[in-house]
Amino acid sequence: MNASTQERRNIMKMISPTPDDAMIVFDGVSKSYNGAVALHETALAVRRGEFLSLLGPSGSGKSTILNIIAGAIAPSSGRIFLNGADVSTVPPRERQLGMVFQNYALLPHLNVYDNIAFPLRIRGASNAEIKQKVGDALERVSLVGYEKRKPREMSGGQQQRVGIARCIVYSPSVILMDEPLGALDKKLRDQLQGEIKKLHRDLGTTLVYVTHDQEEALNLSDRVCLMNGGRIAQLGTPDELYFEPVDEFVADFVGESNLFAGVLRDDYQVELDGGWLLRVRSAQGFLPGERVKVMVRPEKVEVAAPGDASDAHPNRCVGTVNQISFVGGMTRFEVRLADGRTVLVKGISDRAADRIEVGASLALRWAAHNTVVIKANQG
Ligand SMILES: Nc1ncnc2c1ncn2[C@@H]1O[C@H](COP(=O)(O)OP(=O)(O)OP(=O)(O)O)[C@@H](O)[C@H]1O
Ligand SMILES: [Mg+2]
């Protein structure tokens, strides 16, 4: 059974015996434009109430997925289920989804109150209901008192709060956000990330969030769906993507990593090109003789005392410090080994580490369970 058949079975399991688990399901959904594939045939299930990020480089298909959920793009194949119902042919308006865009998409001639009231008015809500719901939404995004302002009289961060209020005001069961913080500076992004996370917790809504910022995705999400070239590269918790990447692309895209090429000798050993034998975490699913990559996260590399022979850290090497940089409370070293490899080391800055200088000789070590075998990229 190939991977996509297995995936499809998992999806079908989610649709039929346990429909309550899945809020959004893609069954074999794809999208092509004049023969150019934007999204390969995809199986995807978003759980009820979860915060799922679509992460990936530019052009990897993130917005395509979001817009197919919203109904703004018609798929070339496959079916879309929302809350158990096939909505493949249901027009966007009737899907009852909330949408937040990067460019805010506010109505410039309407003030804040009327912008937020807009989705309720087109649904024929009474004035009393509108007043109560807009008031509640304004409170949730901390904009009470701004009712009469026009969008142009507000900062980018405030305009996006209006965008979010307009989205949540009619309590959609699914909220879709496409790079909502993309136009804001770093500090404001951090602040609004916290607010979006809290909002999601308070409302319990299913939220699908597009970003190309891996830190943002890891920070916000219950699960991250990493896209690459119109396919899902990996779907998992932030922890799984970081510590158990399925391949080199994922290891490289999510956080920093040391990646070494080699050949699997047995379940617990990889021989790197040039003959260095590394002890690795159990390499289940790989065959002896297979070409693989070995990943060690820089914060898992320790600076060892010279002559250290601890059994817990079978992987050791000695090199010369090539570069040192301080990133916040972290210190980052590049250590050049005699064989030409470079090992990246990251640790919490402390006095001992701060005494290490460029050109110094340094012994490094890391544990076998932090030495992860992953699939090498093809070619
Ligand atoms: N209307 C269209 N016509 C033709 N090709 C399109 C169209 N819309 C998107 N594509 C192509 O589909 C692919 C996926 O696009 P998509 O917008 O989903 O990427 P993305 O991951 O959201 O990227 P970004 O981070 O740049 O927003 C891209 O190669 C893009 O050029
Ligand atoms: Mg996009």
Explain how this protein is built:
One of its GO terms (molecular function) is transmembrane transporter activity. The protein is α+β, with helices and mostly antiparallel strands and 379 residues long. The chain folds into two domains: 3-248, P-loop containing nucleotide triphosphate hydrolases (Rossmann fold); 256-306 and 313-375, Beta Barrel (OB fold (Dihydrolipoamide Acetyltransferase, E2P)), CATH 2.40.50. The protein has ten helices and 20 strands. The protein has helices at residues 3-15, 62-70, 112-122, 127-140, 156-168, 186-203, 214-220, 238-243, 248-253, 351-354, and strands spanning 22-33, 36-47, 51-55, 77-82, 85-86, 97-100, 174-178, 206-211, 223-228, 231-236, 258-266, 269-272, 277-279, 291-296, 302-304, 315-327, 330-337, 342-348, 361-366, 372-375. The protein has a six-stranded mixed sheet with strand order 6-7-8-3-9-10, with helices on both faces. A five-stranded antiparallel sheet has the order 13-12-11-14-20. Helix 3 crosses helix 4, helix 3 (112-122) runs parallel beside helix 5 and helix 4 crosses helix 5 (156-168). The protein is globular, with a radius of gyration of 25 Å. The structure holds adenosine-5'-triphosphate (ATP) and magnesium ion. Magnesium ion (MG) is lined by residues 62-63, 210.
